[in-house]
Amino acid sequence: xxxxxxxxxxxxxxxxxxxxxxxxxxxxxxxxxxxxxxxxxxxxxxxxxxxxxxxxxxxxxxxxxxxxxxxxxxxxxxxxxxxxxxxxxxxxxxxxxxxxxxxxxxxxxxxxxxxxxxxxxxxxxxxxxxxxxxxxxxxxxxxxxxxxxxxxxxxxxxxxxxxxxxxxxxxxxxxxxxxxxxxxxxxxxxxxxxxxxxxxxxxxxxxxxxxxxxxxxxxxxxxxxxxxxxxxxxxxxxxxxxxxxxxxxxxxxxxxxxxxxxxxxxxxxxxxxxxxxxxxxxxxxxxxxxxxxxxxxxxxxxxxxxxxxxxxxxxxxxxxxxxxxxxxxxxxxxxxxxxxxxxxxxxxxxxxxxxxxxxxxxxxxxxxxxxxxxxxxxxxxxxxxxxxxxxxxxxxxxxxxxxxxxxx
Length: 408
Fold this sequence. Notes:
Layout: E1 3-4, H1 8-11, E2 26-35, H2 39-50, E3 55-58, E4 74-75, H3 83-90, H4 92-115, E5 123-124, E6 126-131, H5 134-149, E7 155-158, H6 159-166, E8 172-176, E9 180-181, H7 184-197, E10 201-203, E11 208-213, E12 218-222, E13 225-237, E14 251-260, H8 265-268, E15 276-280, E16 287-291, E17 295-304, H9 311-329, E18 338-348, E19 355-357, E20 365-369, H10 377-390
Parallel strand pairs: 1-18, 2-3, 2-13, 3-10, 6-15, 13-20
Antiparallel strand pairs: 4-9, 5-9, 6-8, 7-8, 11-12, 12-13, 14-17, 14-18, 15-16, 16-17, 19-20
Helix pairs in contact: 2-7, 2-10, 3-4, 4-10
């Protein structure tokens, strides 16, 4: 039976191996307090602890079981929008900086996973962005030319080569080679454990109720106590009532993910190579990747955020829709049922790049909000950008992701 509303990553993790952290109570003093225990919060806790900064992480529920545990587990080496779109929004120089920072973050994230020996099923995976119609091929050709003109490495594939690589009929494709896939839930809890080993303190089931900032410190209040710090980092993926004046800068969406039952070996041989992540040029686009070498994951069907009262019904409907759309791409899998179907909620910005860094109206705050790439690269990117801001070592490329007047 299909398991609706529960991600594969969380559902298959042995319950006996889930390590719980205590609830926060009393008073603590620290250098930095992080609000949010998803992949971004856990990666940031590790980055700060490894740099010798004392850090406390507060998670309202359980580590990694929110947006991160529902993601696709794709480490993309390109942002969520085309280079052409980002250049139009922020200019050529900023777009080039942002693109290069994203690719570097993808490579460094994969390297960190290997260095820490995180058991999160990490594998290298090239990305194929596919055009299936003549109009899509023209748009993709413009994208390829824009990247090359900006000095961004990219390679185009003809229809014949794209079809062979993807296993589906394609008019052309653009390939990037520096991506990867992983289990995002295992990655989050693994990074949290690595942060604790470096001295970080982690609390679960400790929702933050209020943040007060002053000239010398910031006080973060939970239901049972307070944490005083030099800086607070809000890494909740999207603004919460703690910073409600920022809510208007985001558009709130739902994407959906379906994972098939195991596909028989004789059928798998008729499909494309398992070492690719496929992105099509539909609107909204689909992301397709292999899981465990015998299941297909498809994400897409994006829409405005689904109200809670319609959530269960919508997940069932969109899971069926995605499996049908997958079968139109791979007719040989027709009849294979979905094993899991779930929703991913996210907040997107006007230019589809995340906001990472300080905001002038919130002293002693750093933020990490927004994502539209269906990837987890922004979690690692945010951890490095936030650390540089804290150490007053921000790089020119970091401004691309900031709360600048041009972006707001």
